[in-house]
Amino acid sequence: MELIDQHTKKIMEGCKERALNAGLRFQTESLEYIVTNRDLLELSPKLMIPTLYDYWVHDVEVLKEKGRYELYPGNPYETVINTRPAISFYNDNNPDWLNVLIFYHVLAHIDFFQNNLYFRHTWDYDFTGQALSDKRLIAKLRSEKGRWVDYVIEFARGIDNLVGYHDELSRLNRPAVTELSKRLDFYFDVFLQSIKKVKIHDYIKEIEKYNDCVNKEGKRAEKAFFSDVRRKYPEFDAIFKKSLKEKPEHKIDPIQYLIEHSDFLKKDENEWMRSVMEVVRNTSVFFQPQIRTKIMNEGWASYWHEKLFLQDDRIKGHEVDFARAHAGVASLPRVGLNPYALGMHLFYYIEEVADKGKYSIEFKRLLNADKREKFDAETGQGQDFIFKVREDFCDFLFVNTFVDQDFVTRNKLFVTGRRMNQAKMVWQFYVKSRKAEDYRKMLLDTLYHPPHIEIDPEKGKNNTLYLVHRFEEKPLVKEFIANTMMGIEYLWGGPVQMETSEVVPTSPPKEETKEPEIKWQRVLYSMENRKLSKRNI
């Protein structure tokens, strides 16, 4: 692995200049490395972070990828990691024209990393430097504690998908709280609703009264509003001051709870385990946004590499080569999902619709199909609109908001079904639906959605850790439950119970066309002395 040569670096700097002129925003310092396929195979299990801590699963993945590469050899174009400065890796045999294409793709990724609000918690530090520090810590502990370090890593990684990622974001993105805004939140969220329990129309009147104060008084609105509140509710100030003395509720995820409350981990001889668990948790939180923005991130990069590459004078003579390479990345498959293509086509669609002003109230009020089809306000705001989408959305919001019937129809998208051909004993695929709601549901079902598991201290008795799975009609994977709960039991130092829901067997429907009815039963898993039991609740 080595830095790119000066000739290739000059190409990259030219791409940066054109990308910045087109409206992308990113830190101009970056590092680019030339790597072999062997390097990429060894870096992939570490998520391309060279300084990530060592773990035996990484070695297993390397061996597996080497075997796969021998059967299906190929050259990946690039990969980029979200660090400060941004680091990207390139294959060692790319021609100049291909590097131009790839550099635009990488720069769009960097723009996404450094501007999308779901990456907000990664903006303030260099993760590769932090990872190196963590790696040295774990190496030192491994020399002292031996294999027990790997046990703790494995047990912590068993629940590292349950980290409180959104709680981290909420603390960072929440605006600074002033004394007045605290009072305002308490008045509308707690005092009126929970203490006074006012009727809905009275609650709305209070909101309207506050809005009138804002329009009339400006910066003095809150003071003027609360002077009237004190006349109506003289007890409000005393209740509010009492609420400030109470410790605010701070949600913590299962790993944090174990670190803070496990008597086993508080023992002097086990203190080191908490450091290892912190490393695992922080690494998981860092990578959460990349899992949750795959379609957007790859779509944004594909949109910009096509747009900027076609305007670049350095592609002359390589238009056909570009078309061949781009088609492999940005073509929509008939069956399956290509996040690059889906995201790119959706960004183009959003830009066109915003240019025509079809996200306006005026358009939404139109009922005539012919007028809706011909509507064009010529706003010229499409580009600004997709930049705003890039900043504020994740994959769930992106798909749920913008995948509509027009988009599905235009791109000839559909949901496939599968049925057994009894005569030939083969599976047949068929077009099950062309409706936007069905296609959207299919996409949403493919997105990353970890289970929501909380800890209920009130139900935990006799040093038992009680977990509650907030069920969303997605059952836990049964084969993982035993090992995961055994790891939690070890870190907790006592029995562990988990409440979840599972499918209850039902008789098949009499009519083949009807979907089978699904019934759910609440069950309780218990892990004690490394033995798992289950009972219905």
Structure in words:
The protein has about 525 residues and is α+β, with helices and mostly antiparallel strands. The chain folds into five domains: about 1-115 and about 295-325, no CATH class; about 130-165 and about 250-290, no CATH class; about 175-245, no CATH class; about 335-445, no CATH class; about 450-535, no CATH class. It contains 24 helices and eleven strands. The chain has helices at about 5-20, 35-45, 55-70, 95-115, 125-145, 150-155, 165-175, 180-195, 200-215, 220-230, 235-245, 255-260, 265, 270-290, 295-310, 320-330, 340-355, 360-365, 370-375, 380-390, 395-400, 405-410, 435-445, 480-490; strands at about 1-5, 30-35, 80, 85-90, 415-420, 425-435, 450-455, 465-470, 495-505, 520-530, 530-535. It has a five-stranded mixed beta sheet with strand order 7-8-9-10-11, covered by helices on one side. A four-stranded mixed beta sheet has the order 1-2-4-3. Strands 5-6 form a two-stranded antiparallel sheet. It is globular.
